[in-house]
Specification:
Belongs to the CorA metal ion transporter (MIT) (TC 1.A.35) family. One of its GO terms (cellular component) is membrane. GO terms for molecular function: metal ion transmembrane transporter activity. It is a single chain. By secondary structure, the chain is of the alpha+beta class. The protein has two domains: 230 residues, CorA soluble domain-like (Beta Polymerase, domain 2, 2-Layer Sandwich); 61 residues, Up-down Bundle (Methane Monooxygenase Hydroxylase, Chain G, domain 1). Helix content is 58%, strand content 16%. It has seven helices and seven strands. A seven-stranded mixed β-sheet has the order 2-1-3-7-6-5-4. Helix 4 runs antiparallel to helix 5.
Length: 310
């Protein structure tokens, strides 16, 4: 799907078709749409296909007046998936009279930009618009990391009384997401540092300040990922022991209960034998047997309580 936008008065406005100095957003483009972008604007086909590879790493290329920038953005998959959060590549292409973004699926960063989260947008200023996408990408990582922190806190509350592995598996999934986040953030940082060092495109002082802000936000996301990963690692080890202790407590309770029930069962079984037994002729014999049985069970229960087995 191809979407056409142009900034008017600092705000994005959707267009029915292509306009100069506009923005073309390609979401899961069909072969015909890719051919249109190649034919109409001369964009190299490699530049159009690279961002559609889910394993593509962040980098940039320049060829024949076109600039391709590939970066990794966060992508929520939902709590019921194998990985709650993953990363997907986003391609940004600078053509002569427009800027093109391309992704294999609706990208959360692009969707937020379309909803107007950026202020003072100018699609004619391709370099600044690209830096604004960089900034929003870093901020998106921070938002998802805060959500992961809340999920960790929720799992932690459930783990205190848990005897199952489900909560630990949830933490493991979040830890995998954090690994993907850190890998993507590090790669994005290297790509942006190279853009800054090699001056890939012309930047005014305001643009330079914006790129510095992006690098700071990206570094903050990396540090936050490291902190959350360290907390998860230590917490998983600690709560594995907690779950083991909870299971041991349940087993201890069942064992003591079995012992207390077994004593009356043993005594009544003996007095139920078909042989001569004490008090078998006494009308109060059954009461004596029950008194002995439950008296011994009560004594054992008192001893267990004193020994703090309960």
């Amino acid at each position: 799907m191809l979407e056409f936008y142009r900034s008017i008065g600092g705000k994005l406005t959707r267009q029915d078709g292509y306009v100069d100095n506009g923005w073309i957003n390609a979401v899961a483009p069909t072969p015909a749409e890719l051919q249109y972008l190649h034919t109409a604007f001369g964009i190299p086909q490699d530049y159009l296909s690279y961002p559609l590879d889910l394993d593509e790493r962040p980098r940039f290329e320049k060829e024949d007046g076109f600039t391709l920038i590939v970066m990794q953005t966060s992508y929520p998959l939902g709590e019921h998936s194998d990985i709650p959060y993953d990363t997907i590549p986003l391609g940004i292409i600078h053509a002569e009279h427009c800027i093109v973004t391309i992704c294999t699926m609706p990208n959360p960063v692009i969707e937020e930009i379309k909803r107007g989260t950026l202020r003072h947008v100018s699609t004619a200023k391709k370099n600044r618009f690209t830096l604004q996408i960089f900034l929003r990408t870093a901020q998106r990582y921070l938002i998802d990391l805060r959500r992961i922190d809340k999920q960790v806190d929720a799992v932690e509350d459930r783990l205190e009384n848990s005897t199952r592995n489900r909560e630990l598996l949830e933490l493991l999934k979040l830890e995998k997401s954090l690994v993907y986040f850190k890998t993507a953030l590090k790669a994005n940082e290297l790509m942006m540092e190279r853009i800054k060092r090699d001056r890939v495109f012309e930047m005014y002082p305001d643009d330079q300040d914006l790129l510095d802000d992006v690098l700071i936000e990206n570094l903050q996301a990396i540090e936050m990922t490291d902190i959350t990963t360290n907390i998860l690692t230590s917490m998983m080890g600690a709560f594995a022991s907690v779950i083991s202790n909870n299971v041991n407590a349940v087993v201890k309770l069942l064992t003591t209960t079995t012992i207390l029930i077994a004593i009356p069962t043993l005594i009544t079984s003996v007095f139920g034998m078909n042989v001569p037994l004490p008090w078998q002729e006494s009308p109060t014999g059954m009461l004596w047997v029950l008194a002995i049985a439950f008296g011994l069970s009560g004594t054992m229960a008192f001893l267990f309580w004193r020994w703090k087995w309960f």
